[in-house]
């Protein structure tokens, strides 16, 4: 007696993919309106973290004493890390970075025009 080959019937299957945002600190699920992604920068590097409303408030409270004393730079680059220009390439962002560093470190520098080689060299040494 010969065996007949099995016939496998293909049945369409539906899939439902559910994406949940989870608080990166405590692992709780973030539902609509109860938190979200927070973007921030520190020492030239951009970060993102997913936080519940409670943890977002904790972060804001922790940063408030520093932000209230800080100078705004007027630059908001959500989602993009600051570019790093080569020394020979120059560029407006790099010059602004040098000016801010120079002022923070006691140098006198104008808002426009050339930056002295002394200040540029000191900036490079500090990096």
Main sheet attributes: strand count, strand direction, barrel closure: 2 strands, antiparallel
Proportion of residues in extended strands: 15-25%
CATH architecture of the domain at 18-63: 2-Layer Sandwich
Instruction: Identify the strand order in the major beta sheet.
Output: 1-2
Number of helices: 3
CATH homologous superfamily placement of the domain at 18-63 = Lsr2, dimerisation domain
N-end to C-end Cα span: 83 Å
Helix content: 25-40%
- Radius of gyration over alpha carbons? 26 Å
Order of helices and strands: EEEEHHH
Q: Provide the CATH top-level class of the domain at 18-63.
A: Alpha Beta
- Which stretches are poorly predicted, pLDDT < 50 over at least 5 residues? 79-90
Write down the CATH topology of the domain at 18-63.
Answer: Wheat Germ Agglutinin (Isolectin 2), domain 1
Count the strands? Answer: 4
The general outline is elongated
Q: What is the overall pLDDT average?
A: 82
Structural class: alpha+beta
């Amino acid at each position: 007696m010969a065996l007949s080959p099995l016939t496998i019937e293909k049945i369409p299957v539906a899939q439902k993919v559910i994406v949940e945002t989870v608080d990166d600190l405590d692992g709780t699920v973030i539902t609509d309106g109860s938190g979200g992604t927070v973007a921030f920068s520190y020492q030239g590097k951009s970060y993102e973290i997913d936080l519940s409303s409670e943890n977002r408030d904790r972060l804001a409270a922790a940063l408030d004493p520093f932000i209230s004393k800080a100078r705004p730079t007027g630059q908001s680059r959500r989602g993009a890390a600051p570019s790093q220009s080569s020394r020979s390439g120059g560029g407006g962002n790099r010059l602004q970075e040098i000016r801010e560093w120079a002022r923070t470190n006691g140098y006198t520098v104008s808002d426009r025009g050339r930056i002295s080689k002394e200040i540029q060299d000191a900036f490079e040494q500090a990096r």
